[in-house]
Amino acid sequence: MRVLLAVDGSEQSAFATEAVAALASVSHVTILHVVDLPRLTFSMLGPEIAHDMTGMAHKALQQEGEQILSRTLSQLSSSPFSPTTRMEEGTPADLIMSVAQEEGIDIILMGARGKGQVREFLLGSVSQRVLTHAHCAVLVVNKPVGTLHHLLVAIQSEEDVGRVARFLKKHPFPHAAKITILTIVPIPRSLLRGGASASEEKVEHALKSAEEFLDRAVSQVQTASYPITPLVSLGDPAQTILEESKLLEPDAIMLGIHHPSALTRFVLGSVSHTVIHHSAFPILVFR
Description:
Number of domains: 2
CATH class of the largest domain: Alpha Beta
Largest sheet: 10 strands, mixed
Mean pLDDT: 85
Shape: elongated
Oligomer: single chain
Strand content: 15-25%
Low-confidence stretches: 115-122, 261-268
Structural class: alpha/beta
CATH superfamily of the largest domain: HUPs
Number of strands: 10
C-alpha cells in the first residue's frame, strides 16, 4: 500500500506521522511538504526592496520546509521502509491531491488543523478540500494514534459497501483489527415510544430492512478477513455516528463522502461535514 504523508510542521502533522506505523501492508511512503508562499506586498518600500523581502521570505519558508522534512524522516527512522521526500511550491490542497494521483497513492495521511472556535475554518483550508476531492482514501488525524485495531465504519448504500470492501482488501490495518459496521435508520427514536402502533410497524419494517442490508454488507466485506460486528441504530445519522463513537471509542471512524447535490452543502455532504468537524476520533474517508 502506497502512502502519501502530507506534513506542515504542526503537532497534528506529527500525529499523522506516528499513524504511519499503525497501518499495515505499507510498501512505500512519500513525505510531502508544500511551501505556500503568501502574497506579500511591500509597495511602500519600493520595487527593489520589495523584491529582496519576497526573496528572503521565500528562502526562509524553503529552509523551514527542509527542516520539517528532516524531522519527519527522523520520526520514521525505525520504519521497515525507506521514505522519499518531496517539497513543492503552490497551493497545499491542490498539490497534495496532484502528487497523490501522480504517484498512485492508496491513502493520504495528514493532520487536522485548528482548535476551538476556529477549527472548522482552519480545517476547511486544506484538510477539508483534500477529504472532499482526493481520488483515494484520506486519513485525517486529530490526536495521537497508537493503533488502528478497532474501526467504526458508517455505511448507507450499496456503493459504500463496495468501496469499503475494495479498500479493506488492501489490508490497510493489522490482522487483529476489528470492524464495526454501522448503518442508521434516519427516523426519530421517539417513534418507538408511545402508542402509535402504525408508526411502530413502519419503524420495525425499516429496522428489518437495515438489518438485511447489513447482512449483505458483512458477507461482502468479510472477504477482507477482518472480524466484523454489524450495528443498526436509529436517529439523526451524523449525531448517531458521533454518539456511537463515544460509546465504542474506536481508533478511527471510516465514512464515505456523499454529495446530495451539485452544491454539496458547502463542499461536504451534511452527514460527513458534521462528523468530520465534531469527531473526537481520527477520520478515514474511503472511496
